[in-house]
Each structure stands twice: as structure tokens, then as C-alpha cells.
Write a structure and sequence with these properties.
The protein has 405 residues and is α/β, with parallel strands linked by helices. The chain contains 14 helices and 17 strands. Helices cover 40% and strands 17% of the residues. The protein has a seven-stranded mixed β-sheet with strand order 4-10-9-8-7-5-6, sandwiched between helices. Strands 13-14-17-16 form a four-stranded antiparallel β-sheet, covered by helices on one side. The chain has a two-stranded antiparallel ribbon with strand order 1-2. The mean pLDDT is 97. It binds 4'-deoxy-4'-aminopyridoxal-5'-phosphate.
Length: 405
């Protein structure tokens, strides 16, 4: 069992008031707050250890390089990758997907080929593939979603053809909270020799991730959504793909030898880490993961599921409230609308009552529009949230109805 009172003390930002009301932070899907250990680590690094990695012969550079590589190992263990060099640091989920779309696309995709995404993807897992398709004359196909918010997996076999080069799908929907059966999806795709990229932006913090067990070919996530710093992210790729794919950026640190005639690239992972990396962010991300493991990741997962279920049951008691995403497999996120009240108006009033939620299309316009709406209100939970906060949300929504309903 988690000691939530104690945990909340680890996140100083949560203790504040907004408009004279205690802050109820339910926008964790957009970004999570940072525990003191991560903040202290960043401060210590800049105060005592800062130096560029893989460059110097001197003490500070060696210390930071060791810490950076240790963070890579922490990520490797956390997602159970086979090799540390399969972990590439990037700026975040978006940059990881763009990296694969460019690099994999350059190597493997030609005119007439097909890429499959699902109907519940974030723009970050749509637009880079569209750009690739435009560049190469390839075709983007979409796996549809049911009204409840589940993928129509029975359609996948037919959607895949001998032209399909890659399938990209989210682990957890950032709008609906659906947990997708990624292992099953990979199995179907692999039966057709199609590699799979999993967008873990909303999954890494709510689910135990094992890339070897899932057998996915690529897995991507952002540090800031898992209690780490902004500006750092991860691209996991199976060695066999990463070795074959060309670098997507050239520059310092990613080379073995440069002449004006030809450059020989570094081995993995440096081949994909051109220029000065966000090594402070990577080390901070490593600390965030260590913090989660120390706190008890299984308990964290269970707690977030419990909060989502409690919020769903409370919100369903509100007259006229409609929840979007009613899959049997959900976590962390509840999206809703009350009658015909505009989500933005609901969000504004909730804000004045101290409750921070997200409103709008959540960067998943095709999905949101498929419900015939332009946006929702989204409450998204982290393990530091409490049932009392859900009750505050509930009461604040009654107030919204009183004012606008
Ligand atoms: N995919 C999903 C499912 C997301 O929720 C997000 C962030 N909202 C992203 C991708 C993009 O993440 P980032 O902005 O950190 O690159």
C-alpha cells in the first residue's frame, strides 16, 4: 500500500494553492510533476558535476559520462530491453517517432508501400507517418476504433498487406484511457512480417513495460510524463533494425571518422545521438525511474487504476455527463462532457475552483471528431492523487452545472 500523504510531500508543487483553493492537479496526461529527488539531482549536477559527455579526459566529464550511461542502463532495465545500446536518448516521444519515421522510412519505405496507424493516435503518431508517406509516395492506413474505445483488432489481418512496412500504435490512449493489447497486436503484425512501433507516452507510467515480452520493434516515451525532466525522451529499437537504419541527424559524437570524402558512423547508440545530448535530463529521468521503483511500481499501477475507476463511478452519478472511452481495459484517464456545456467553459470554472484539467482535442483530432465532437474535458491521474481530490472534482462539476447547466 502506498502512503499517499508521504508521497505528496515528495512533490513540493502539489502543496500550493491556486485562487485561494488547494491545487488539485488532474492534468498528468499532459505532464507529471517532479519529485524532490529529481529536482535535487538536476541542481546538484549543474552545481557540482556539469560537463559534456563522451568528450573529455577530465574528471567531471568522466563522472557525467558514467552517470549518463548509468541512466541508459536504468531505462534498459525498466523496459527490459536486451541491450543498453538499444536505448537511444531523444527529446521526447515526438522526436523519437520522427526519428523512426525518417530513418526507417529512408531505409525501407518506397512508393506504394503502406504504413498502418490506429484511429486513436496522438498527432505525434500520425503526422510523422503522413510526412513520410508524402515524401515517399506511400499510403497511410487506419485501424478503426469502436464506440467504446477499443481497437477493432479483427480488422487488422485484412488491413495488413504485402505492402505494409510498419504498424504504429499507442499503448494507452491519451483521450480514452484505453489500454491496448499491444502484445497481441505485435503477434498479428509479426505473423505478416510487419514490425511494430509502440507509442508509450501514456503507457510507460501506468503499465509495466517489457519490450522483449511484447516483442515490439520500437518503443518510445517522454521523460516528462514519467516524473522526469522535460526535453528528454527514449527511443528503444531492436538492435537488428537500428543497425540497419541510417542516422537521422549528423554531427559531433555520432562519428568514428570524418573526412571530406566520407564519414564512418559510430556504433549504437551513439550513431543516433548527434550533438550535445540532454545528459542532465537523461540522468534526471534515471532518478525518476529509480524513485518509482523504490516507491513500488506495482502499487503505483494499482493505485492509478483504482483512481480511474473511482473517478468513473463518481462522475457517472452526475446527470447529463457522458464519458468517452468505456473500454473494459482502462487506466489513468477519464474524458467527458456535461450535456452541451463547452469543454473549455467547464475547464475554466474548474480552474477557478483549483482543479487543473485538460480541455480540447488533446492532439487527437481524428479520434475526437469520430465521436462527432470537437473536444472533451480530460481528468488524468497520477499515484499522488487522492480520492478526496476526485470528490473535489465531482463537487466542482456540480457547481459547473449550477452555473451553466
Ligand atoms: N503520444 C501520446 C499518446 C501522448 O499523449 C503524447 C503527449 N500528449 C505524445 C505522444 C507526445 O509526447 P511529447 O509531447 O512529450 O513528445
Amino acid at each position: 500500500m502506498l502512503d499517499v500523504e508521504k508521497i505528496r510531500k515528495d512533490f513540493p508543487i502539489l502543496g500550493q494553492q491556486v485562487y485561494g483553493k488547494p491545487l488539485v492537479y488532474l492534468d498528468n496526461g499532459a505532464t507529471t510533476q517532479k519529485p524532490t529527488i529529481v529536482l535535487e539531482t538536476i541542481e546538484r549536477l549543474y552545481n557540482k558535476e556539469n560537463s559534456n559527455v563522451h568528450r573529455g579526459v577530465h574528471h567531471l566529464s568522466n563522472v557525467t559520462t558514467e552517470n549518463y550511461e548509468a541512466a541508459r542502463k536504468t531505462v534498459q532495465d525498466f523496459i527490459h530491453a536486451e541491450h543498453a545500446h538499444e536505448i537511444i536518448f531523444t527529446h521526447g516521444t515526438t522526436s523519437s517517432i520522427n526519428a523512426v519515421a525518417f530513418s526507417f522510412g529512408e531505409r525501407y519505405v518506397q512508393a506504394g508501400d503502406e504504413i498502418i496507424v490506429s484511429g486513436m493516435e496522438h498527432h505525434a503518431n500520425i503526422v510523422p507517418w503522413q510526412m513520410l508517406c508524402e515524401r515517399k509516395g506511400a499510403i497511410l492506413k487506419v485501424l478503426p476504433v469502436t464506440e467504446k474505445g477499443d481497437l477493432q483488432l479483427e480488422k487488422l489481418d485484412d488491413l495488413i498487406s504485402e505492402k505494409t512496412k510498419l504498424l504504429a500504435v499507442t499503448q494507452v490512449s491519451n483521450v480514452l484511457g484505453t489500454i491496448n493489447p499491444v502484445k497481441k497486436i505485435v503477434k498479428i503484425a509479426h505473423a505478416h512480417n510487419v514490425p511494430v512501433l509502440i507509442d508509450g507516452a501514456q503507457g510507460i507510467q501506468h503499465e509495466k513495460t517489457d519490450v522483449q515480452e511484447t516483442d515490439c520493434d520500437f518503443y518510445v516515451f517522454s521523460g516528462h510524463k514519467i516524473y522526469g525532466p522535460t526535453g528528454i525522451g527514449v527511443l528503444y529499437g531492436k538492435e537488428k533494425w537500428l543497425n540497419e537504419m541510417p542516422p537521422y541527424q549528423g554531427g559531433g559524437d555520432m562519428i568514428k571518422k570524418v573526412t571530406f570524402e566520407k564519414t564512418i558512423y559510430e556504433d549504437l547508440p551513439l550513431k543516433f545521438e548527434a550533438g550535445t545530448m540532454n545528459y542532465i535530463g537523461a540522468i534526471g529521468l534515471g532518478k525518476a525511474i529509480e524513485y518509482l521503483q523504490k516507491t513500488g511500481f506495482d502499487d503505483i499501477i494499482a493505485r492509478e487504476q483504482e483512481l480511474e475507476e473511482y473517478a468513473t463511478s463518481r462522475l457517472m452519478q452526475i446527470p447529463g455527463l457522458r464519458i468517452f472511452g468505456t473500454s473494459d481495459h482502462k487506466t489513468g484517464i477519464v474524458s467527458f462532457l456535461i450535456g452541451d456545456i463547452h469543454p473549455y467553459d467547464t475547464g475554466m470554472i474548474l480552474d477557478k475552483l483549483g482543479v487543473a484539467v485538460r480541455t480540447g482535442h488533446h492532439c487527437a483530432e481524428p479520434l475526437v471528431e469520430s465521436y462527432g465532437i470537437t473536444g472533451t474535458v480530460r481528468a488524468s491521474f497520477a499515484f499522488y492523487n487522492t480520492k478526496e481530490e476526485v470528490d473535489i472534482l465531482y463537487n466542482a462539476l456540480l457547481k459547473v452545472i449550477e452555473m451553466l447547466g
